[in-house]
Amino acid sequence: MEFYFENIIGKSKAIRDVLEMVKKVAPTMATVLITGDSGTGKELIALGIHAHSDRKDKLFLPVNCGALPETLLESLLFGHMKGSFTGAFANQEGLFEKARGGTIFLDEIGEIPQHLQVKLLRALEAKEILPIGSTTPRHIDVRVLAATNRNLKKEVEESRFREDLYYRLNIMEIHIPPLCERPEDIPLLIDHLIKKHNPELRKNFQGIDEEVVRVLMSLPWKGNVRELDNVIEHTMILAEGDRITLKDLPASIVTSGQATPAFTYNLKDALRHFEKQHITRVLDQVGQDRREAAKLLDISLSSLYRKIEELEID
Ligand SMILES: Nc1ncnc2c1ncn2[C@@H]1O[C@H](COP(=O)(O)OP(=O)(O)O)[C@@H](O)[C@H]1O
Ligand SMILES: [Mg+2]
């Protein structure tokens, strides 16, 4: 069987490793814990696992465990019986049953309240659930995938997350590193996002200028791929013509891009950027006292003058 991940973009070692794991774990029934910061693609990877399993023709049901009050979350996951609480007007099947034959994706699993952690452990171990207000356990047939942007191990150490549940969920962990640790994926993602947004926005961008890509590669992307996606969409809405150029980028982005050196693969250029940044920082620290800065940098005053000239430090 061949595996294609046409919608999961990336050529970094990190992403290739992730896809390798997905390929191995997908056909099994194993529970997988997907970790990584918000916007790194955890849900996309979960969907990839489902899509490459023999459950792919059945439901994939994502649930955000952090978004609902406890009783609602319990009822959503496990179901309830008529009259079991105010507002329970009829029997309601929970997602663990609705997803039969398929996959349930428990997003933000670190947020799940203690009492539901016990019920979840039982669901995983005994493959049984108990709807609210019922005394008859029901068998379930569902693959469980979970994700978190918290450090669950630390949550366990601080007694906020049950250790037994942690080990039950963490049979396999797939970690997706933040985008800033894999800038080589950014150009591919940009192309992918342009192609994705062109039809929705009724635009026809053919590409993006190299210098824009370099600025985008140098940004911290705290919101990871989701943030990159927003910036590309925003830029495409406002830009005209058939290529995205530097002047099309939102001003706020360009400024933050200048704060850090533009990303470059070239070692000499990278060193030059670093030298400039380092010397500027030292000069700032000593209130532009060049003699003092030269001492700290452990170079002669004349070398410092030469560097300031060469690197165009003002
Ligand atoms: N490697 C990737 N290739 C293509 N799109 C990606 C990739 N990673 C993330 N995305 C996109 O970024 C957005 C956020 O991804 P998502 O899976 O919701 O992140 P998370 O669940 O970690 O917050 C989605 O639109 C998703 O399709
Ligand atoms: Mg998510």
Give descriptors for this structure.
single chain, 314 residues, alpha/beta, Rossmann fold, Helicase, Ruva Protein, domain 3, Arc Repressor Mutant, subunit A, 3 domains, five-stranded parallel β-sheet, two-stranded antiparallel ribbon, 14 helices, 11 strands, 47% helix, elongated, binds adenosine-5'-diphosphate, binds magnesium ion
Structural class: alpha/beta
Q: Indicate the CATH class of the largest domain.
A: Alpha Beta
Overall mean pLDDT stands at 92
Strand content: 5-15%
Could you explain how this protein is built, in words?
- This protein is an alpha/beta fold and 314 residues long.
- The chain folds into three domains: 165 residues, Rossmann fold (3-Layer(aba) Sandwich); 78 residues, Helicase, Ruva Protein, domain 3 (Orthogonal Bundle); 44 residues, Orthogonal Bundle (Arc Repressor Mutant, subunit A), CATH 1.10.10.
- It has 14 helices and eleven strands.
- The strands form four sheets. Strands 2-5-8-1-9 form a five-stranded parallel sheet, with helices on one face.
- Strand 6 and strand 7 form a beta hairpin.
- Helix 8 crosses helix 10, helix 12 packs across helix 13 and helix 13 crosses helix 14.
- The radius of gyration is 26 Å and the shape is elongated.
- The termini are far apart.
- 28% of the residues are buried.
- The model has no long low-confidence stretch (mean pLDDT 92).
- The site of magnesium ion (MG) has 3 residues, from helix 2.
Summarize it.
With 314 residues, the protein is an alpha/beta fold. Helices cover 47% and strands 11% of the residues. Helix 5 packs across helix 7 (163-169), helix 8 crosses helix 10 (224-238) and helix 12 (267-285) packs across helix 13.
